[in-house]
Design goal:
Order of helices and strands: HHHHHEEHHHH
Largest sheet: 2 strands, antiparallel
Strand order of the largest sheet: 1-2
Number of helices: 9
Radius of gyration: 19 Å
Helix content: 55-70%
Structural class: mainly alpha
Strand content: under 5%
Length: about 190
């Protein structure tokens, strides 16, 4: 843990709200992104990421100063998401599906800074296929894909977040990638047919 972060953690433990705000400033977007990938619903992701950050604030006194604050926060976010899913037994939706309200459907735009229509269309199709494929994975597989391949966590950090050993993470990630490859290959063969 960096010296500045360590100072902020210590101040937060002693009740300094400003220090806590500074401490989590860089983690708010990450918490939301994880919640969005797990829950696949924008509003739920906003609510649950906020709930997780509140839990971090309430429980910061139990943080082990020898471990990584980032990993500890990841674990709280993941557990909060999984608890929410268990309690609600919610049906998850792809972020590529349109949002619906009483009057109409609103498509979510994924911005692309290139202006070549062919590239834009190709990128959107590939992105949609990848996200749909990831979304179709079981929670255990999707979680390790999100934490390793999308968030860039180390095997050690993922093991800490998921409360398992590194061997389990590596095995699960290997199976998840193979399953993802199988899903994408099947989708591509259906397109070519």
């Amino acid at each position: 843990m960096q010296d500045y972060e360590l100072i902020l953690v210590k101040k937060s433990i002693s009740g300094d709200v400003d220090a806590f705000e500074e401490l989590i400033k860089g983690y708010k977007k990450m918490a939301y992104n994880i919640a969005l990938r797990v829950l696949r619903n924008k509003e739920d992701a906003e609510d649950i990421s906020q709930e997780a950050l509140i839990k971090v604030f309430k429980n910061i006194g139990s943080f082990n100063m020898k471990s990584s604050f980032k990993v500890w926060l990841y674990r709280i976010v993941m557990n909060t998401c999984l608890d929410f899913k268990r309690k609600k037994n919610i049906v998850t939706y792809s972020i590529d599906k349109p949002l619906e309200n009483d009057e109409n459907e609103i498509m979510q735009d994924i911005p692309d800074n290139t202006y070549n229509p062919d590239i834009v269309i190709q990128n959107e199709l590939e992105s949609k296929m990848l996200y749909d494929s990831i979304d179709s994975l079981d929670d255990d597989f999707r979680t390790v894909i999100v934490l390793r391949d999308m968030q860039g966590l180390s095997y050690k950090d993922i093991a800490s977040v998921l409360s398992c050993n590194e061997g389990t993470v590596k095995s699960r990630l290997n199976r998840a990638r193979n399953k993802l490859k199988e899903i994408i290959t099947k989708k591509l063969s259906n397109i070519e047919s």
